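fyi for ur records
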Amino acid sequence: MRSRIAAAFCVGLLALLGVIPAQASSHREAPGITSMPKVDGTDLYVFNSYEQGRAGYVTLIADYFPFQDPWGGPNYFFLDRDAFYRIHVDNTGDGVEDITFQFRVTPVLVDLKVPVGGKQVSVPQYNLGPITGARTNQNILESYTMWVIRGPVNNGSPGTNSGFVTSPNGSSRFAKPADNVGQKSIPDYPSYAAGFIEEFNFPGCTANGGVGRVFVGQRKEPFAVNIGEIFDLVNLNPLGARDAEPNPLEEKNITTFAIEVPAACLTKNASSPVIGAWQTSALPRSRVLSNNPSFGKVTNNSGDYVQVSRLGMPLVNEVVIGIKDKDLFNASKPKGDAALATYITNPTLPAILALLFPVTAPTNIPRTDLVATFATGIEGVNFLSDGQPHEMMRLNTSIPPTSAVQQNNLGVLGGDNAGFPNGRRPGDDVVDIELRVAMGALCHALPGVFCTPAQAPSGNLPFTDGVLQDVTQFDAVFPYLRAPLPGSPNGPNGVGQLP
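which gave:
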């Protein structure tokens, strides 16, 4: 939690010192992933559903493909057809997935044509007329399958109750909405996209009928951080107003994989209500450029699949892991995190902050407070561990959700135990939370548990990056993240129409 810690600051500070090439929560966080934006995992949200009438459900949201400019046509942002996009759940605390939701998205070219001089000629654009729920006039169609895997993903033989999920009508393929081309193409995008929220049957799950909900599609970028001023030698007031600056990511979109399932289908049993989660993506080991590329297929692939992106708690790879190990972290699993433990027990961020500002870094080394926050969980809140550090998002499913109107965007630090680092809701301001925790907030909030107030002289200061994130910026219903920004600023009737 605190590790990602001043996410904002970290990102800027470490970047300034040549340690981090990252931008935002987990956008372009490692050298290798910068060349593979379609599979770059950016943010993970795991929380007890707070939509009215959805008590007893957990929502998991994994975002990919950062920095989408809404106007990015004519291809827009279809996903990698060869990739596996995964959300992993560990309910025993050993850093090994017990349940994995694995997605594969397939883009298909319709190849729309228009008559020109007696010939039918393929068009260069995304659509040829208004796009509807029936996906008419659309030149690129995407659909996806979702597989539930029980047990370790790479053991070669999924456990029992594994298999494709199906919709109530028995289909194992689900449609993905078009990206938001603009209001002339899709006049009411929120209503259009809502038609792609589908129920599915969860193999091996019996609670609440074993039925969940799923949505895969473009959304408005949910993360908020003061990127520009942070990169300018943290050119801001770190103790100023929390809403002093606009969010530089406000004008971007993202691609979201969102699922909602009964909590009882994720936990080990009723007496073990805590789960851990992380997202990954994987690509074929061998990808060779093709001499005869076709739509969406420019390589010839072979071999097994290799993990290329990993994300649990926000900002870990950006502001905690040293640059020499960033690609290694993306390829690693929580089970082996002890090998990278020094980055947590001896963090560089507080020391860097102390160089730039008149503040004092915590002296409680090793930082057991940071280890608890994102590598084991906190006793009495979301502890889940076999005694070894495993970096992942932990959620206590037995803690009731806080309604949208009552949420505190500082989560547990603000007295709201249903928020970060007990899971992560879209409105949790993780940058401010992690910045404060990095500087020793838990030494003051839980004196004597991990450390004392004297060991963190600056730990009670209200650090902020000046960019506010809270629940009012999101919907209060699944999939919670708001509709993506349109590619055209004009309304459905355009401007300057011919008479």
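The first helix runs from residue 7 to 16. thats all i got for now
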